[in-house]
């Protein structure tokens, strides 16, 4: 039998789903372990194996697809927790993420006045001094206009390492 397994490691729980060839679905849940995300993932897989009366090794040998997703990194960025983070952007766009740009059509259902200068701006994902640039350019069709300058990447990484990122 070929199984398909999906595991999603969230901020608090790790969810596991197994689909049998018959279409039957088995679900389970384990605690997310931020200090070692693999533990929560493997705990889900162990529980799925147990539901089938199999060892983890037997389950995995009969599995043809494993999908793993996580919101852990997204949560760290959104909550400004975790390790110090830097940003590497296309040359000329270093500060772009700090601009408060929004389309009027995206603001239709908001109660705030988008032109009210007293509105508190969201905190930037990265401090300005931890933003750097690399030389490259790609157009909207994904075509390379200016090839990536690898030396500019090395310089950007050296800069961020110097800032202890």
Automatic annotation (TrEMBL):
Gene3D superfamilies: 3.30.420.40
Source organism (scientific name): Desulfomonile tiedjei
Protein name as annotated: Hydantoinase/oxoprolinase family protein
A single GO molecular function term of this UniProt record: 5-oxoprolinase (ATP-hydrolyzing) activity
An individual GO BP term: glutathione metabolic process
InterPro entries, per the entry: ATPase_NBD, Hydant_A_N, Oxoprolinase-like
Residue ranges annotated for the Hydantoinase/oxoprolinase N-terminal domain, each copy included: 4-165
GO CC annotation, single: cytosol
